[in-house]
Recover the amino acids of this structure.
């Protein structure tokens, strides 16, 4: 990465926005690269709009100088927007740039509400996928898998390790949590990979 990758996750408090942002930043550190994470909550931590700013840099953490310039954890524009609820659309609109990718859960968000968002968009029914294949609780990790597949900023093995660390205490009490979150990540990764492959095929066939 010559430039930092800047990602914003946003949704309702309680949807696990901060959890997946922490996992991504943790994975960045585990991979030996610089990363930052900044939580930003609404007035109510649960029920308000929750926003997380994540930056990932290609420079090693021990580097004495870094061209990525990610010292300040909050940024003005995101490369990738991940939106989990309708209320977050307006709250995060100012961070959208025309070349960003806008990933949203269309199980929860009406396509019509995004008419004013002019950047490329990908609808991913993460809640519906998680409900059918696993449990609705892990829909946020499905979206995390999709983000990693699209950006390629971190090797999957570091994300898996970060997930295990993030949920270590819960996994001790219930080992099934490890399987659920690993599977949720893999499903999201696979779904986004399929979307990317199909888009490439369409471009070739035109």
């Amino acid at each position: 990465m010559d430039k930092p990758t800047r990602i914003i996750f946003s949704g309702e408090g309680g949807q696990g926005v901060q959890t997946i942002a922490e996992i991504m930043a943790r994975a960045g550190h585990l991979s030996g690269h610089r990363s930052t994470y900044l939580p930003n909550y609404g007035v109510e931590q649960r029920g308000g709009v929750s926003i997380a700013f994540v930056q990932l840099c290609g420079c090693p953490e021990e580097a004495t100088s870094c061209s990525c310039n990610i010292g300040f954890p909050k940024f003005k524009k995101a490369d990738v927007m991940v939106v989990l609820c309708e209320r977050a659309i307006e709250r995060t609109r100012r961070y959208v740039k025309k070349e960003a990718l806008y990933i949203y859960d269309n199980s929860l968000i009406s396509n019509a509400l995004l008419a004013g968002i002019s950047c490329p968009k990908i609808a991913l029914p993460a809640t519906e996928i998680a409900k059918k294949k696993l449990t609705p609780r892990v829909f946020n990790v499905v979206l995390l898998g999709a983000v990693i597949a699209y950006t390629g900023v971190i090797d999957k093995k570091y994300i898996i390790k970060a997930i295990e660390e993030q949920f270590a205490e819960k996994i001790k009490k219930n080992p099934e949590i490890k399987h659920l979150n690993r599977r949720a990540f893999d499903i999201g990764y696979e779904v986004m990979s399929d979307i990317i492959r199909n888009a490439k095929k369409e471009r070739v066939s035109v």
User: Anything to note?
Assistant: Strands lie at 5-12, 33-41, 49-60, 78-83, 96-104, 121-123. Residues 5-205 form a domain with the Pyruvate-ferredoxin Oxidoreductase; domain 3 fold (CATH 3.40.920.10). The mean pLDDT is 91. The chain has one domain: 5-205.
